[in-house]
Amino acid sequence: MAKAAGGQLFTLLEGPESAGHTRRSQVYKSCLKAILDGRLARGSRLPSARELARDWRISRNTIDEALLQLQADGFLERRVGDGTYVSRDLPSTASRKPAAMRPASRAAQASYSAWAQRALHSRLPGGSPQPRAFFAGFPALEFFPLDLWQRLTTRRYRTGGRDLLGYMPSMGLPALREATARHLAISRGVTCAPEQVMILNSLIQGVELLSRVLLERDDAVWVEEAGYPNVRTALSMSGARLVPVPMDEEGLDVAAGQELAPKPALVHVTPAFQYPSGTRMSLQRRLALLEWANRSGAWIVEDDYQGDFNYEARNIEPLQALDRASRVIHLGTYTNAVFPSLRLAYMVIPPPLCAVFEAVRSQLDDHTHGIQQAVLADFIDGGHLSSHMRRMRSIYKSRRDTLLGELHATLRDEYPLGPAHGGMNVAMHLPKAMRDAPLCERGWKAGLHLAPLSRHAPTQGGLNGLFLGYAALSEREIRAGARRLARFIEAEHRRR
């Protein structure tokens, strides 16, 4: 067995002469297999011929001959005085996927759970390193103050960084819980003590956690008739029964929900900017929901995803701030305000539930990255987050206005748009004759990153359209993307 410079091991193939192979052929095929399987990565350094000869107990001349043949075939490069490396540009025959990367057979897929099979077949095309029109839910990272973040990170490592390398408290780093409570009070009007704040790895983790704490199998859960698929998945994994509740221009219809399921254990809503329609829940509906929850004993999960980005005169008051009976769990994320790979979110828990949430969290993943929590706390306390968000609201508002103007100019209002008071996306509705899912697949091939609205409402057949993100695109890219989208839609219209 030989070790490459990167630390990966690869073994000499067995059975040389008896299988009709020479020693040279055996070495050649062993190295080639390691390259094709990815165990010897492109650009990685091979052990020296002397090391290979010693480990495999083969003459060095035989090793040299095999490596020269691999070099002649384009798999290796020899650098004078530096050794032998796997070529970065491998021959086309090396483009075959290793067995581990090939799609599973139908027989293998049959062994997956029902949930896993649904997840496998509901995947959308993957994103690209540089988001294209109209990649949804991605922030404009070019404006993030990365140099400042790096300085704050370096300072944290220099001043007590070792203390942040161990296990963190299950509720989160106290400094970030305090900073989050202050930030929410100023930016969203949320009223809470730091002790009510739990720091999470993601908003979805919060949904999974609260479903473990509050739901039993077959419990009814109200969800908006259209919503984020991953939230539905997280709620249903507890065995709960999801009840899609109709919405109108005022948001979730509380009266309709009571008719469908009078005694749900929990309600999940996105009142600031309904996902994906963009509708804002009216004050009357918010008060009605709170009054009903207090009377029935149901918990309300207020999902404030993208609630930081409001482009109107003022934000709507969150349910948590209106709640007088401690029935609301407020969820939010730093993904859009900072950057996605930060992987930090938060949950504001009613005081009676704090102890049980902490206990359950400690039995699962237990805690979140310490250094990142500390740096984010410094970023907030220094006023940098609020400054960055003010700037981004202005930029996103301008980009939203550009998109709406271009869609109006190119598509002439033939395809209605949903409300766009805030957030980072806008919904565009299509006629029923243009089915959104296959249209989005064809759009991907045409250079457009489109998401079907129907994906957000699997049980509601009337939702048909496109979910368009604009935050990560420059105004020039938005204009070009809107024109490309208009040409694509017109071509699709002619196909009918």
Shape call: globular
State the secondary-structure class: alpha/beta
**CATH architecture heading of the largest domain:** 3-Layer(aba) Sandwich
- By oligomeric state, this entry counts as single chain
CATH topology of the largest domain: Aspartate Aminotransferase, domain 2
The first-to-last residue Cα distance is: 61 Å
Radius of gyration over all CA atoms, rounded: 28 Å
Please provide the count of β strands: 16
Low-confidence stretches: 15-20
What attributes characterize this protein structure?
17 helices; Aspartate Aminotransferase, domain 2; alpha/beta; 3-stranded antiparallel beta sheet; Arc Repressor Mutant, subunit A; 7-stranded mixed beta sheet
Task: State the gist of this model.
The protein has 496 residues and is α/β, with parallel strands linked by helices. It is built from 17 helices and 16 strands. The protein has helices spanning 23-36, 49-56, 60-72, 106-109, 114-121, 146-158, 174-187, 203-214, 229-236, 254-260, 283-296, 319-322, 354-363, 370-381, 384-411, 436-445, 475-495; strands at residues 2-3, 9-10, 76-79, 83-86, 197-200, 220-224, 241-245, 247-248, 251-252, 266-269, 299-303, 328-333, 345-348, 425-429, 451-452, 465-469.
